[in-house]
Amino acid sequence: MTLNNLIIAPHIGSASSQTRSKMAAMAIANLIAGLRGDRLPNCVNPEVYN
User: What pTM did the predictor assign?
Assistant: First the structure.
């Protein structure tokens, strides 16, 4: 971080309203499925179902 040719910036690849809306919809779908006892449609570690 002391280099004069280094720029550190936060990752903002998901900082669009369209992407954030999709992320919210995926989280809601997971929440509803989890409350129903169903398989999560957007599971980041699907090996839990094996």
Answer: 0.69
